[in-house]
Design a protein that fits this description.
By secondary structure, the chain is an alpha/beta fold. The protein contains 10 helices and 10 strands. Strands 6-3-7-2-8-1-10-9 form an 8-stranded mixed β-sheet, with helices on both faces.
C-alpha cells in the first residue's frame, strides 16, 4: 500500500518567489530567510517522495469570489504556473498524479467530506513557492519538480472558512485514503500558508512571534488540542491572514501518531521575522 512518510509545513510568502525569480536570494535581507531552507533542500534530496500532496490556498487565481470551494482536489495530469498579474513565475509545470488524486477523492468523499473535483487549474504562489523553497531553483526549459504533486486547495480567503477541527479530521481521512491505495508509493503531505500576518486595516503588518512559536510547539506535541482552537483566536492573535494555519492541521492530521502510531521525529524547525510583512515558519516531521 501507499504510505505517508513525512509532513512538511511552510509559509508561502509571494515575495519569496519574487526574490528567487529576480536573483535577490543572496541579498542580506533574504539570506536569513533562505538559510532556514538549506537543510530542507538536502533533506528532500535524501527523502525524495513519489508524490507530494500539497495543501495550499488559491489567491483569487483559479477561483474567485464568484465561486470558492471549501476543499478542492486537483485530479489533472498537469498544472501550469498561474499569471498573478505580473506574468507566470518562471518555474516548471507541475505534474499531477491523477490516479492517486482520484482515489483520494473517492475515499474521502465516501467518508462524508465534500470535495470539489478540479480537472483544470493553474496554480499560484501558494503552491509554487513551497516547491521552490524545498526543491531549489529549477530550469523552466529543461528542469522539472522532483516528483508529481497533488494540489489541494482550501478556502481561507472568504468566510465562512473550515474549522481547525474539520481540517484535522480531514487529514486523518486523507491518511486512510492514501493507505488504501494499491501501490507502494512514498507520499509526503505538505501544509502551507501563515504564519501570523495581516495585509490590511489598522493592524496591517501584525506579527506575533510568541503566538507563532507556541503554535509550532502545539503542532508538534498537541495537534489534537490545537485543532480545537476557534477561528477568533487565529484572527485576534495571528491577524486576519493567520487563519491560513488551519491548513497545517490537515497535514498534521495525516501523521501516524494521530492514529495511535509513534510520535513523529522533528527533522527540522525554523522561524524567522520578517519576510516581506509576514513571519516565516517551517517544520519537517518524519513518521
Amino acid at each position: 500500500m501507499a504510505r505517508i512518510t513525512a509532513s512538511v509545513y511552510t509559509s508561502h510568502v509571494p515575495a519569496i518567489g519574487a526574490a528567487l525569480d529576480l536573483g535577490k536570494a543572496h541579498e542580506p535581507y533574504w539570506q536569513k530567510v533562505f538559510a532556514g531552507y538549506e537543510y530542507s533542500k538536502g533533506w528532500l534530496r535524501e527523502h525524495r517522495p513519489d508524490v507530494i500532496f500539497l495543501v495550499f490556498n488559491d489567491h483569487a487565481t483559479a477561483f474567485s469570489l464568484e465561486m470558492i470551494p471549501t476543499f478542492a482536489i486537483g485530479t489533472a495530469a498537469s498544472y501550469a504556473p498561474a499569471d498573478e498579474g505580473w506574468g507566470p513565475r518562471p518555474v516548471p509545470v507541475v505534474q499531477g498524479h491523477p490516479e492517486l488524486a482520484s482515489h483520494i477523492a473517492h475515499s474521502v468523499i465516501q467518508e462524508d467530506f465534500d470535495l470539489t473535483i478540479v480537472n483544470r487549474m493553474d496554480v499560484d504562489h501558494g503552491l509554487t513557492v513551497p516547491l521552490s523553497l524545498m526543491c531549489g531553483a529549477q530550469d523552466p526549459q529543461t528542469g522539472a519538480w522532483p516528483c508529481p504533486v497533488i494540489p489541494f486547495a482550501v478556502n481561507v480567503v472568504q468566510y465562512p472558512v473550515p474549522s481547525g477541527r474539520r481540517c484535522f479530521a480531514l487529514g486523518q481521512a486523507i491518511r486512510r485514503a492514501v493507505e488504501s491505495f494499491d501501490a507502494p508509493l512514498n507520499v509526503q503531505i505538505w501544509g502551507t500558508g501563515g504564519m501570523s500576518h495581516q495585509l490590511q486595516g489598522p493592524r496591517a503588518g501584525l506579527i506575533n512571534r510568541e503566538w507563532d512559536n507556541r503554535f509550532l510547539d502545539r503542532l508538534i506535541d498537541d495537534p489534537a488540542g490545537l485543532a480545537q482552537l476557534p477561528h477568533i483566536d487565529y484572527v485576534r492573535e495571528a491577524g486576519s491572514e493567520g487563519i491560513e494555519l488551519v491548513m497545517w492541521l490537515i497535514a498534521r492530521g495525516a501523521m501516524a501518531d494521530v492514529a495511535g502510531g509513534a510520535k513523529p521525529r522533528v527533522a527540522h524547525r525554523f522561524y524567522h521575522v520578517p519576510a516581506s510583512n509576514t513571519a516565516v515558519g517551517h517544520v519537517i516531521l518524519e513518521n
